[in-house]
Amino acid sequence: MVELDHVVEEVLKVINDNGFSQKGAFNLRQNGTSICHGDSEHIKIKKKTDKPGIDIYIDGDTKGEKVYIPVVVSVSGMTDLVYNDFYIADGADVTIVAGCGIHNSGCNESRHDGIHTFHVGKNANVCYQEKHYGEGNGTGGRVLNPVTNIYVGENSVFTLDTAQIKGVDSTVRETLVEMDKNSRLYVTERLMTEGDQTAESNIEVRLNGEDSSAQIISRSVGKGNSVQTFHPKAVGNNKCQAHIQCDSIIMDHAEIGSIPEIRARDLNAAIIHEAAIGRINDEQLLKLRTLGLTEEEAENVIIENFLN
Amino acid sequence: MVELDHVVEEVLKVINDNGFSQKGAFNLRQNGTSICHGDSEHIKIKKKTDKPGIDIYIDGDTKGEKVYIPVVVSVSGMTDLVYNDFYIADGADVTIVAGCGIHNSGCNESRHDGIHTFHVGKNANVCYQEKHYGEGNGTGGRVLNPVTNIYVGENSVFTLDTAQIKGVDSTVRETLVEMDKNSRLYVTERLMTEGDQTAESNIEVRLNGEDSSAQIISRSVGKGNSVQTFHPKAVGNNKCQAHIQCDSIIMDHAEIGSIPEIRARDLNAAIIHEAAIGRINDEQLLKLRTLGLTEEEAENVIIENFLN
């Protein structure tokens, strides 16, 4: 077991919910290098030879297993680019816990660009959890620009649960999902920005296969002078169903934009979108304050509830 | 009274709902020229001297009056560009009935680009109705590219009721609305395309004034191989409310895209969007067919209801 430094351990607690323990299949990347990794009977992780990153092979007998692949950047001024490819065999049932934490206590920008590609076979069930987090008292920026490409095979279910908890100064998220026959996609995106942070999220879902379905739920809170832009897009190329829902709470002097796009290219494509941007519910606030909470505490309770 | 040819009379019946009669304030433009016009006590129409088009002055004592300004293009191969400016004084209450019909029985493209600008004062109530329509058995295209700029003054109400009934081969609609304090906007857009027709509609509403509010309802039906794209945008720059709703029925091999954008730049901006694209309701269809209607008749009843 590799001994981890204190900063890494603290960051892992946040981005992996205390679940990371160097057992089973895992890979921990710190400052551009894999510092420890393990395989399990059904999940094998191989270092790429042509570029930075790993290939993760998940066989069809994987049932309910979790694989942890956290990334920590703790050096100020570093740009870490990584390519992770997931090969998920027919019938596999797996949870992938990713997540990236940047600890920046210097004055230079620290940045992680993770390019993740998922090749999901038939009849599989994949849950991908990803938490993005920044900390440290340096003035250098904490930047995360993830690219996520997902190919969902016939009859498979893909759940994408992504959260930007706090401390990320700038993010541009690009997500592309291609869906085969009878596949299902569930996306939950949660995002909080404050100060002068900016966040942009572009999600495109192509419902190519008959009877494919997608649900995208995006919830965000914008505080301070932060700016957020969401551009979820669902394209129905076949008989399919899609539902996009974006809800945002705006606070202080934040700016929030929501530009969903729904496009039907088939008579039997049924696509729905809903979006709302508004301030914190005054009645909820009042109620919590009459229970003895300060305004700030009451706001935090509402925000936490809204994002969870 | 100017005698109108048969084609013009028939087109006017469609685009002006039989309301045009060369009485009161009116201006009829045919093939690039004003062929008749009249003023009323409160509404004066002046021909522009620097470019094609008219200035329409509506005084503050106008109460419930209608002004007709239809346009007919009946020559194949013509491009008609016109600038119409409306100066609506404080307190006026007026209905402006525009509308453009293209009768093309030739093989060349006929096109009308109407650039309309509305300067609306305070405490006014303006209703602007506009119907777009194409006909004629020629192979030449019928093209309508309207640009509409609207400045809504304090406490004023602006109602924009726009419909593209049928026969328009290509349209790109650009609408920009700037809203002052306590003003209200109601937009209803209805659009039907068939064959190889294409339609694009871009509406941007800027809610600049405190307590301004906007409601945009867009309903469309896409038949044949037609392609429609909607891009309504509401920007909340102050304490305001906006609601955008887009509903589309997709038929045959049509393609419909809806890309609403809501953007809040103020803590007290509350903006909501809803959009849905789907096929004709099967149960409604079945019900009407059991009442003895053919499939086509039943579809037409549903479409007409949906668009009205």
How would you characterize the overall build of this protein?
- The structure is a homodimer of 308-residue chains.
- Helices cover 10% and strands 56% of the residues of chain A.
- Chain A is mostly beta strands.
- In chain A, strands 1, 2, 5, 6, 8, 9, 11, 14, 16, 18, 20 and 23 form a twelve-stranded mixed sheet that branches. In chain A, strands 3, 4, 7, 10, 12, 13, 15, 17, 19, 21 and 22 form an eleven-stranded mixed sheet that branches.
- In chain A, helix 2 crosses helix 3.
- Chain A starts with 5 loop residues before the first helix and ends with a helix.
- The mean pLDDT of chain A is 95.
- At the A-B interface, strand 21, strand 22 and strand 23 of A face strand 21, strand 22 and strand 23 of B.
Task: Give a nutshell description of this structure.
Two copies of one chain form a homodimer. Chain A is mainly beta and 308 residues long. Chain A has helices at 6-15, 282-290, 295-307, and strands at residues 26-30, 33-38, 43-47, 53-58, 63-68, 71-73, 79-88, 93-97, 100-103, 110-120, 125-135, 142-144, 147-152, 157-166, 170-179, 184-193, 198-207, 212-222, 227-236, 240-250, 255-258, 261-264, 269-278.
Query: Which bin fits the share of residues in helices of chain A?
Result: 10-25%
Q: Compute the CA-based radius of gyration of chain A.
A: 20 Å
The number of distinct helices of chain A, counting runs of at least 4 residues, comes to: 3
- Described by its quaternary structure, the protein is homodimer
Largest sheet of chain A: 12 strands, mixed
Largest interface: A-B, 32 and 32 residues
Q: If you average the pLDDT of chain A, what whole number results?
A: 95
| Low-pLDDT segments, ≥5 res of chain A | none
Kindly report how far apart the N and C termini of chain A lie.
34 Å
